[in-house]
Design brief:
Length: 190
């Protein structure tokens, strides 16, 4: 038969009666008896015996291992932080590039519209000059085709403008620009 040493109560919880070899009991290497649940909770915070402070569980890592682990964790954290920052920077750069592209596109369209408008005006001006030159060339061709001896009296009434004839006949009704031309020696059309 086994001898069961009795201790009045657990030194941690001070409520349960513990016995060596009992169902909820634990004996440490230093010979102290505790409730199993109590010593497990205590060992989560401190690996020393609650009564004599002897080391119950030796540490798995020495100081060099701890330093290496801290350095590796710091390095991983640093690398992760650096990678996150590069990712944020790349995203900001892409946004800025897209904004500048959009701004350049808008300015380019505006400049192109101004250029197109200027070119259309130039085309209209050249078309006007071209039509004037055509009319002038047609008039020259008609003048060359007509006999040279025709005088103003020989022209038919259909070719004269009655309003122009009326203006020529009455000197007081002539517009001021006609009078100013005649005053400076420019002959009135006859």
């Amino acid at each position: 038969m086994q001898l069961i040493a009795r201790m009045p109560e657990c030194a941690i919880c001070l409520t349960e009666e513990v016995s060596v070899g009992g169902k909820n009991s634990c004996v440490t290497e230093c010979g102290h008896i505790f409730c199993l649940s109590c010593i497990l909770r205590a060992a989560q915070e401190n690996t020393a015996c609650p009564l004599c402070r002897n080391v119950l569980v030796p540490p798995k890592n020495d100081e060099n291992d701890i330093r290496r682990a801290e350095q590796a964790a710091w390095s991983r954290g640093y690398d992760q932080g650096q990678w996150d920052q590069e990712e944020v920077h790349a995203e900001e750069l892409n946004i800025r590039i897209q904004q500048e592209f959009d701004r350049g596109l808008i300015i380019g369209r505006r400049n192109a519209n101004v250029e197109i408008l200027a070119l259309r005006r130039e085309i209209s001006r050249i078309e006007g000059l071209l039509s004037f030159e055509r009319i002038k060339a047609e008039a020259s061709a008609v003048a060359l085709a007509a006999p040279a001896q025709t005088s103003p009296a020989q022209t038919s009434p259909a070719q004269t403008n009655p309003r122009a004839e009326a203006l020529r006949a009455t000197p007081n009704v002539r517009p001021t620009w006609i009078q100013s031309h005649e005053a400076h020696g420019a002959p009135w059309q006859s």
